[in-house]
Design a protein that fits this description.
It contains ten helices and 18 strands. With about 425 residues, the protein is an alpha/beta fold. The strands form three sheets. Strands 1, 2, 8, 9, 10, 11, 17 and 18 form an eight-stranded mixed beta sheet that branches. Strands 5-6-4-13-14-15-12-16 form an eight-stranded mixed beta sheet. α2 packs parallel to α6. The protein is globular. The mean pLDDT is about 95.
Length: about 425
């Protein structure tokens, strides 16, 4: 039984030499069969398992991860949380995720370091201001907060930006004060611990190598630790989705691309929240250790490699310099790449799969981390009810056949442009 974290347990263990702590979760061995198998031990997969157990009472669940939990995109992102979307299919979903973020630490009894320091999207033209005003109105209609700042408002929030001789003059920004960041690995650990406490098996070092099918129905998976049967199999493996569905002769409307992120050496407090560049793709925040955490565009070509390339390094750093010239002598300590599952319209897929017994959670593009709680909550509903919830009804797979796209950026069916 997992002990509850509290000030009292901290004091008790401090007085007893820290010998009373138990492992945060069991490193379970796979059983022959489960009611539900969730493939993917990142934030989405673990959140799905947790909400299956908590909200629907389905506890005979296994989460299968080919490495250690959180070793994929959950540990390879820039930790931003926000709900500043425009379209009706997106904004209610991400606002629900924002609300779940706000109660997450109390819900799972784990410090996920949710920090609502604000997310500021800069605009540089009158047309961009009008677009942001429209987005802000859409946000408020969905119950989210938004403030349209003029130049003076941005100067007060982020005085370190280049206002006086900027290549792209800063005219204002759209601010969501409830947005911010969370600690990605703590989110994974918190969901893992909470799911384990409810009886979910978290099986690490267990790679899925195939599927068990009977009469056209998916009834289990083949793994490096033997076959495991299940009533339902849900995929939450981000950029590896196309690899697994290929084993079922399925071709989904997604492509895998690399997204690179960076961390600089530590600085004194500079960036109060998250700031994004409106004249290029660049976003930056500052970690508790003082390092700037930033990123930009995907590499633009298909890849399964968890590493970026020099042209993107140059492009991202150029955008950063245009926005904040004072970082020109800052040293970058490390970078990493996540495998993004880019859908054809830039929006995700949470749906009952095209084969009986199979369920899909994929196509997250740049939005995967911020969506973690709502993704797990909605995918758990879909697995339990065999139908989407109202919040993910727009994320059905068949929208690509019917033409009901959710093109937030308005760039068409070209994944590398989203």
């Amino acid at each position: 039984m997992r002990s509850r974290y509290s000030v009292f347990s901290l004091l008790a263990n401090a007085l007893t030499g820290q010998k009373g702590w138990t492992p945060a979760w069991r490193d379970a061995a796979p059983k022959p069969a489960y009611d539900v198998i969730v493939v993917g031990g990142g934030g989405h997969g673990l959140a799905t398992a947790y909400y299956l157990a908590k909200e629907h009472g389905i506890r005979n669940v296994a989460v299968l991860e080919k490495g250690h939990i959180g070793s994929g995109n959950a540990g390879r992102n820039t930790t931003i949380i926000r709900s500043n979307y425009l379209l009706p299919g997106n904004e209610p979903f991400y606002e629900w995720s924002m609300k779940l973020w706000e109660g997450l630490e109390q819900d799972v009894n784990y410090n996920s370091m949710v920090s609502q320091r604000g997310v500021l999207n800069l605009y540089h033209s009158d047309a961009q201001r009008d677009a942001y005003a429209r987005r802000g109105n859409s946000m408020r209609m969905a119950g989210a907060d938004s403030e349209l700042l003029d130049e003076a408002g941005v100067r007060a929030y982020a005085p370190f930006l280049n206002f006086d001789d900027a290549r792209f003059p800063i005219k204002g920004g759209l601010l969501q004060r409830r947005g911010g960041t969370a600690r990605h690995d703590a989110v994974v650990w918190g969901y893992a611990r909470a799911a384990d406490k409810l009886g979910v098996d978290i099986v690490q070092n267990c790679e899925v190598t195939g599927f068990i099918r009977e009469n056209g129905v998916v009834v289990g998976v083949e793994t490096t630790r033997g076959p495991i049967r299940a009533g339902k199999v849900g995929l939450a493996v981000a950029g590896s989705t196309s690899r697994l569905t290929r084993l079922l002769d399925l071709r989904l409307p997604i492509e895998s691309h690399v997204l690179t992120a960076f961390v600089s050496e530590g600085l004194k407090p500079l960036v109060p929240g998250v700031v994004t560049f409106g004249a290029g793709h660049f976003y930056v925040s500052q970690s508790d250790k003082g390092g700037l955490v930033f990123g930009g565009d995907i590499d633009g070509y298909n890849s399964y490699a968890q590493r970026g390339n020099l042209p993107v390094v140059e492009d991202v750093c150029e955008a950063g310099m245009a926005l904040m010239p004072q970082i020109g002598r800052l040293r970058v300590l490390r970078s990493w790449g996540g495998i993004m599952d880019m859908s054809m319209d830039g929006s995700p897929i949470i749906d009952v799969g095209p084969l009986p017994g199979l369920y899909l959670n994929c196509g997250w593009n740049y939005g995967g981390f911020k969506a973690t709680p709502a993704s797990g909550w909605c995918f758990a509903w879909t697995l339990a009810k065999d139908a989407p919830h109202a919040l993910n009804a727009a994320y059905r797979l068949d929208r690509f056949r019917t033409g009901h796209m959710i093109d937030e950026k308005g760039v068409g069916a070209q994944p590398n442009l989203h």
